[in-house]
Amino acid sequence: MLKAYMILSIILFSIGMVGLISRRNIIVIYMSIELLLNAVNLSLIAISGDLGDSSGHVMSLIIIAIAAAEAALFMSLFVVLFRKKGSLDANIFDLLGSKYES
Amino acid sequence: MSHSILLNILLLAPLTSAFLIFLLTISTRYTKQTLYTFLALSGSGLSAMIALYISYSSYFEHKLFVSHLFTWLNIGDFTIEVTLKADALSSFMLLFVAPVSFLIHIYATGYMHKDKSYGRFFTYFNLFIFFMFLLVLADNPIIMFVGWEGVGLISYLLIGFYFDDIKNTYAGNKAFIVNRVGDFGFLSALMLLFIEIGSGGFSYHAIFSNLSSIESPMLSLIALLLFVGAMGKSAQLPLFVWLPDAMAGPTPVSALIHAATMVTAGIYMVARFAPLYTLTVDVSLLIAYVGALSAMFAAVVATRQYDIKKILAYSTISQLGFMFMALGVGAYSTALFHMFTHAFFKGLLFMGAGAIIVAFHHTQDIRKLRGIRKSVPTVFIMMLIGSLTISAIPPLSAFVSKDAIMTVLYASHHLDLFLMALLSSLFTALYMFRMLFVLFFSETTYEATLEPSRNSVKSMIYPMAILTLLSIFAGMLNLPEIFGGNLHISCWLDLANRHFVLSHTHEIVLMSVNTVLILSVIFYAYKRYAYKDTILKESNTGFVANKFYIDALYNLIIVKPLYLLSVFLDRKISHELIDNTINSMAFNYRKLGKFFSILENGNVRFYALYMLIGLVLGFIYLFLLLKAIL
User: Fold this and answer.
1) What pTM does this model have?
2) Which residue among B100, B221, B451, B628 has the highest number of C-beta atoms inside a 10 angstrom radius?
């Protein structure tokens, strides 16, 4: 049974990873990150259920709480970014890249 | 001990004043010239007075002044003590070095009047006498070498004093580099001495008492190498080339360094090592022949020079040649005495030349300076006395000293040396009076004034007057027996002289023949050059006018190949090989950096991709590792 949970977790993680890398919209990227987090949560819960140890549950609950706080922060960041550039395309926000060196 | 304090003051007074002047020069640009003058003269004047006192007490009371300053090196058994010691020979050197330096200092205050580098000049000048005293007073050859290098350095600095003209800088470089060749000899000799007898101490006394333990071929080698050092410093064939070029410096420099004091360091060194040279007769004889050739060569070349200072420079080489001849046959105090009188009359002649140069706005070519007797009568009289002295006319001082050299050469049964010396002294009279007659006896006249009212001119004339008196009377100190003297200086110096016996009739005949020959040469020069334009008709071709092509030869066999080698190393090795390698390395790194900077595009998505790739690679590695272990 654990194997099925782990496979699902891996699939979720891969989808999140591909989304993170290939999509340009920042909101979608954020969603992909959430997907990564939840993949990890799923595996944590599955393993702790399998072992009969509840510490994995505690960990995943904390992660969910933090992810909620994160979400609020991200939303305000999206607003600020959109006000700066009028777009949420991730490729626009590359000020730290080498093409801006003098 | 009061005695050691005297020596210390003698040595440190010029150093202190040099240092003070240096501080003033760098700290403010508006120092009064008088202040510099005061500092420079007080430093050299103080040491001149002490030097006179020291040589006085050394001469009359046979006092020995010793001052131990500090221990320089202490390695195992070997120690180098910095000790000053004024024995008879050192006191004798002080006797003329210090006062002549002081007089030339006074002269220089006039000559350099209103020069923009007045302070710098006197810094060097005072530093020079410091090093000269160190050279003379040193108690071991290593401290002497410090002084030796020091005077060489100051000579370089002063030759290139007006460094805005690149020619002066070249002349300074030439002097420095040619002297390096000589110093190589000196240094090698010191090292050999150290290897052979260094364990027994390195003061002169220790060296000379251990000389017998060195084998004779090695001893000859050491003597020869030491002489190479003397050859460089005292401008003898074949290392003389720097001295004529050294005349690029201001005239007081030529008078002090390149005529009266520094160039005599070689003579002093050979005399100091007299116990060594008495053991190596072959090398001594070589010294005599080198001296004779130099004396002849320089005297002949001087007859075709046109620059006042160059004529005097060649004459210095020639006179130093005389001294080496005397040293070579073993008459050390005779040579030293000629050095003593030479300091006075050569200083005087250079000062006269300097006065003429100042009066005629830095013209030095005697073809342009004709008939100037009316304009500068005082200088004329002094130059006349100087020329008569250098030509060894009785009873002037150089007559006594040069005749002593002639006598010992004759008595040593080296007739070839004697003839060469005689010929050189005839040429001496010829070139000196050629210059004198061209300068002062001519129908065409050039007008200029050396206003005697100006203080700067006064400070040039008075030292000259004193030196004139000294040139006339200095010979009294070492009158030979034949004139009722008893060679005071020789007795005082008490060196390892070889004694030559010559009957008084021989001596008188020799003297009178010499004098008559010299007078006839002067008469010939009068006929040829006075009130005539002979000098303008002399052609620039031929061996003599081109200094026997020695400079050209050196250029061809030493300077040119070295230059070409340097150009090759510069262009090919340094530029193409080393520079290009380093540059291309830098260039390729730059290109590589450009390439990798494409990866760093500031886009977060790509960074996530790189992290993914890294993770995957890391996992693959771990997987393979685990597989290998299990």
Assistant:
1) 0.78
2) B100
Distance from CA of A97 to the nearest CA of B (A): 3
Distance CA B206, CA B198 (A): 9
Residues on chain B touching A29 (C-beta within 8 angstroms) = 604-605
Taking the C-alpha atoms of B9, B22, B152 and B201 in order, what is their torsion angle to the nearest 10 degrees?
40
Residue that has been written with the tokens 């510099």 in this structure? B36
Give the A:B interface size as CB pairs under 8 Å.
38
Rounded to 5°, the CA angle B244-B248-B254 comes to 70
| Nearest beta carbon to residue A97 from set B600, B608, B612 | B600
pLDDT for residue B215: 85
| B78-86 vs B65-75, strand pairing mode | antiparallel
Task: Compute the residue count for chain B.
Answer: 630
Cβ-contact B235, B263 below 8 angstroms: yes
Would you say B618 and B626 are in contact if contact means Cβ atoms under 8 Å apart? Answer: no
d(CA B602, CA A95) in angstroms, rounded, equals 6
At residue A35, what is the residue type? L
Q: Report which DSSP code applies to B606.
A: H
> What is the Cα–Cα distance from B129 to B14, expressed in whole angstroms?
7
Taking alpha carbons only, the member of B182, B350, B338 closest to residue B257 is B350
* CA distance readout (Å), B473 to B145, B270, B397, B487, B568: 34, 27, 6, 15, 58
Rounded CA separation B328/B324 (Å)? 6
State the Cα–Cα distance between residues B172 and B158, nearest whole angstrom.
8
CA atoms within 13 A on the CB side of B505: 0
Using an 8 Å Cβ cutoff, are B351 and B459 in contact? no
pLDDT in tens, B568-614: 999 888 888 999 999 999 999 999 988 888 888 888 888 889 999 99
What is the complex's ipTM, to 2 decimals? 0.84
Q: Do residues B357 and B255 lie in contact, with contact meaning Cβ atoms separated by under 8 Å? A: no
